[in-house]
Structure formats: structure tokens, C-alpha cells
Amino acid sequence: MFQQLLLTMLHIKIYSIGWILGVLLLGLTSCKPPVPPTDLSKENIIPQPISITATGNAFVLTDDSDIFVEGPEELKQIGQYLADKLNPSTRFDMKVASTTGAPKSGNIYLTLSADPQLGEEGYELNITNNLLKLAANKPAGLFRGIQTLRQVFPAKIELSTAQQGPWKIPTGVIRDYPSYAWRGSMLDVARHFFGVEDVKRYIDLISYYKINILHLHLSDDQGWRIEIKSWPNLTKHGGSTQVGGGKGGFYTQEQYADLVAYSQARYITIVPEIDLPGHINSALASYGELNGGTIVPEEGRVALSKPSRDILGAKTKPTELYTGIAVGWSTLRVEKEVTFKFVEDVLRELAALTPGPYLHIGGDEAAATKKKDYITFINRFKDIVKANGKIMVGWEEIAQADINSEVVTQYWHSQKYAQTAVEKESKIIMPPSTKAYIDMSYDSTTKLGLHWAAYIEVDSAYRWNLATHVKGIGRENILGIEAPLWSETITTMDDIEFLAFPRLPGYAEIGWSPENGRAWDEYKVRLGNHGPRLTAMEVNFYRSSKVPWIK
Ligand code: ACM
Predict the structure, then answer these.
(1) What is the pLDDT of residue 498?
(2) CATH class for the domain made up of 182-515
(3) Which among 365, 397, 457, 482 is annotated as catalytic?
(4) Who lines ligand 1 at CB under 6 A?
(5) Protein residue with its CA nearest to atom 1 in ligand 1
(6) What per-residue confidence (pLDDT) applies to 38?
(7) How many CB atoms lie within 10 A of CB 522?
């Protein structure tokens, strides 16, 4: 009897387990899982990749996923960078490990390839339902590919707080590489000084859009921002103020080296600029022997065509520090060799801090320098830069000197100078001030910025092409694009972000993606989808009414 009861109970138990299992199985097959995002080609990636082939399935990142790298030690750092981007919001605590061959299902795999089409910065992202594989010829390509991968995940992946998954992305293959080698932004840390943390944040934000050059404008009339050990008064005195009379500041060489390392880890080359022979008052105030004379400062940004005006004060006497925003009124002194000793010392110390190939010598708006002196200056700067093993970059006015294919010219507003530079076989960087100066206000209601070149709304910033912008200057003459941010009117990181975003992603796309088929009406939808991403990254961006922002 007891045995009978036991058997009946067991039967009921087995039966009920079977029933529960049955219901579960039914549930799994009949109730639909949430619709996965299955079309990789519909993702809103900026810059637009060269090719996307969707395969209609989904990869899911889970608590079991890790990052495996195959290749040199450097790849581990890139893997860690990715883990640091994905871990805070997913709370998956992904680890980075070396591997030989593809890891098992559910993981991320970073590896090197030999794929000539991908070049130095290209990558192939191959997402299947069991592996997320990123391959590139060079570590830089892996880094660029990671930016694409970040943009394929939901926007909340960028938040620093724990978020609810699932972390599901569509499968397919993205093959991608840049059109132009120079995709830069310039930050003017001279007129208003921005500290190391601000510059690092800027580096992080621009790297999200595959920018690969950060041009730092390190000196101007208002301030000298990089420590030069052989001329200490440059920063002690010359770095002590800024536009409006604030306290200014400067980077010690150690801080600057830290910035360089930070940007290197993001595959961004820093191009340091010391603006010579004009825009130099902060040095003339620090060392009177460099003073070649100043003329009456006139407010306004373009002071080039003015005839020489009266010299103020005595040459060789230190000038007063300057906190206004006039341009083109100070000059180095050409007659004395001490000036060239100064330039040699500055460029030597700067070159030693610069792993990248370029030194920028300014050369713009030297309206207080006589033309023949200007040519002497630029020719000598060219030799000094070359002697330091670097490539000289200068603003378009340097086309008046003996430049050649070893020199890079940065166009900003004179087509004539840019054309002359091309005739002299110099390669061109393109930041036309009417299109790519991100210190220009968006419209007449914008509180920040100037508008001497133009008002530049987000659509106008996007609607132009590098290779057709200046007559006679084609793709073969152009190294790439740059978006300079001069800092007359900006004082905080929020200000920087407001003027740079959302124009900067457009410049990044102009430099990276093919011109063929580029259209504002298509781009603005992708940009609108980046609103939540920029919000997640806490970017203070301008919510232009031209863009259909998604919430
Ligand atoms: C410049 O805007 N003076 C290069």
C-alpha cells in the first residue's frame, strides 16, 4: 500500500515535471522574443562606412563575453580601451586575453590582417551570431573599427551607469577605410587656456568620429602655453593671462607629454603650433630683445591687407601683455640672430616632445612684418624644422616664401595663396573659414563664436567637398580636412562642445567617406540618431532645428 502510494506520487512528480518542461518548450517556441535589430545596413554610423553587408541575424553580448586579441602587446591596450567603453553600462566585467586563433562563441576577437585595400586605418568588422570579429592591418585600424562598433550598439552603451540589456547587434560585414589621411581639428589654447583634462575630453570626443589629428595652437599674442625650459619667462610671464584678463595657464613639458601619450593611445597625432613671426606678443612681453615692433591693434579678425601702420613703443623693449582680440599687430625682430636662436630653441624642445611628423610654425596674419622679412623668416623656419627631422606646416600665407613639396600649407581664406602653394607642390590642408571654422556662430542668435567669415549652420558645414572647394586644387593636392576652433569667445569645456558639436561629425565624414552620393538629407537622419549618443556622453551640443533629433 505504502509502496503503491510512493509510485503514484513519483508518477505525478515525473508527469508534472514533464508538463512544466512541455509548457516551457512551448513558451520558447511559440512566444516571440523581442524583435532583434537585424539590418546592419540601417545602423546610423558616422562617418558613413565604405560598405555594409547585412546578414539578417543578431549577435548578443552577454555576461560570458570577453575580448580576445591576437597580435602584438599593443592590441591588449586597444582591447582594454574597448572593455573600458563597454563595461560601465553593461556591467559585464569583460576581460582582455591573448589568443591564437578565433575564440569560442559569444566573444569579441581583435586581430591583424594583411588586406591592402584597408590601408593604415581601415578595418573589417565581421559580426556573426556567434562571434564579433574586428580585423585591421594596423592597430590604428582596430581603434577606428571600435568606434564603428560602439555606434552599432544601442546609444545607452555610452552611459557610465549600469543599463538593462539585451546588448544585441545585427550581423553582417563592414569594410571601411578613409578617403583622406588628415582628418583634424584645431584647438586654440592660447587665447583662452584649456587644461589637460579638457583637452583629453576633446581627444575622446573627436576620436569617436575617427578624427586622427589634433592641431594645438600653443601660442598667440594673448598667451604662451607650452613650457620651454631654455626660455622660462615665456610661460612664467607670457602664459600668465588670456583674452579678457583671466589668469591663463600653460602645460609643463610633463603635462604635455601626458597629453601626447593620451592622444597616441587613441591614434591621434598632435600637431603643435607656435605662431611665428606675428601673433607673437606673449613672447615679446616676456623677452624684449625679440620685439621687432608692434603696430596699433585694430579689432577684427582679418587685418591682412592693411598698409603698414605706425610702430608702437621701442623695438627690443618688452611689450605689455595683451588681452584683446585684434590680430596682425606684433612681429619678431628679423635683424638680430637672437631671434633665430629663440626659434631654434623653441622648435628643438617642441620637436623633442613630438613623436608625430609635423611642426606648425603659424605664419598667418603677419601684417606687422615687412614682406621681405616675412619671406626671410619662413625660409629660415623651414630649415630649422627640417633640421629637427620634422615636416613644416604653415598657414596659407607661407606660399609667399620658398616652399616646396616638403612643406604642408593650411588654407583658410585666400584661394590665391592656396593655389600658389599648389604650384610650388606643397600639399594642402583644407579648413575654409566660411565652412570649417567651428568658432563661427551657427546663426545670429548663437551666443558664442564670431561671424567674420560666415554663420555656419550644421547643414552648411556639411554641404561642401574638399576636392572641389578651391578652383585648381583637386584631390591629388589635398592631404585632408581640418576644423579649427579659435577661442576668442569660449572659456569652458561646455563652450568647446557647443561649437564643435554637432558640426564636427560632418567634417569627420567629409574627410573619411567617399564624396559620391553624399547628401545632407540622408546624413541629417543619421546625425539626428546621434543625439542620444551625444547625450549619453554628456556632450553639450547645439540642437540645430535643421536636424531631426531623435529623443
Ligand atoms: C587664421 O585664421 N588666422 C589662420
Answers:
(1) 98
(2) alpha beta
(3) 365
(4) 364-365, 395, 412
(5) 364
(6) 82
(7) 11
Q: What is the CA(414)–ligand 1 centre distance, in A?
A: 10
- What is the topology classification, in CATH, of domain 40-176? Chitobiase; domain 2 (3.30.379)
| Single-letter amino acid code for the residue at 486 | W
Q: What is the 3-state secondary structure (H, E, C) of 240-302?
A: CCCHHHCCCCCECHHHHHHHHHHHHCCCCEEEEEEEECCCCHHHHHHCHHHEEEEECCCCCCC
Q: What is the pLDDT of residues 92-148, one digit of tens each?
A: 999 999 999 999 999 999 999 999 999 999 999 999 999 999 999 999 999 999 999
Q: Is the pTM for the entire model greater than 0.70?
A: yes
What's the pLDDT at 312? 72
| Gap from CA of 299 to ligand 1 centroid (Å) | 14
CA distance 329 to 334: 15
Most informative mutation of 364, 408, 438, 488 for ligand 1 (most atoms within 8 A of CB): 364
Distance CA 149, CA 375 (A): 48
The pLDDT, as a whole number, for residue 376 is: 98
Angle, nearest 10°, between helix axes 74-90 and 139-152?
Answer: 10
Ligand 1, from 215, 329, 395, 396: best to mutate by most atoms within 8 Å of Cβ? Answer: 395
Helix-strand-coil percent breakdown of the chain, rounded to 5?
A: 35, 20, 45
Separation CA 138–CA 120 (nearest Å) = 6
CA of 207 from ligand 1 middle (Å) equals 24
Alpha helices in 91-232 (DSSP H): 139-152, 196-207
Q: Is 43 a catalytic residue?
A: no
CB atoms within 10 A of CB 29: 8
Q: Which atom of ligand 1 is nearest to the CA of 433?
A: 2
Enter the C-alpha cell of residue 231. 626660455
173 Cα: distance to centroid of ligand 1 (angstroms): 42
Q: Which atom of ligand 1 is nearest to the CA of 395?
A: 4
Q: Residues of the chain whose pLDDT is less than 70?
A: 1-37, 299-311
Length of the chain: 551
Per DSSP, the three-state class of 428 is strand
Per-domain residue ranges for the chain?
Answer: 40-176, 182-515
Residue nearest to atom 4 of ligand 1 (CA): 364
Cα–Cα separations (whole angstroms), residue 419 to 376, 409, 471, 511: 21, 10, 8, 20
**Grid coordinates of 189:** 589654447
Q: What is the pLDDT of residue 296?
A: 75
C-beta of residue 115 within 8 angstroms of C-beta of residue 135: yes
CA of 395 to the centre of ligand 1 (A): 7
Closest C-alpha to ligand 1, atom 3: 364
Contact call for residues 190 and 238 (beta carbons, < 8 A): no
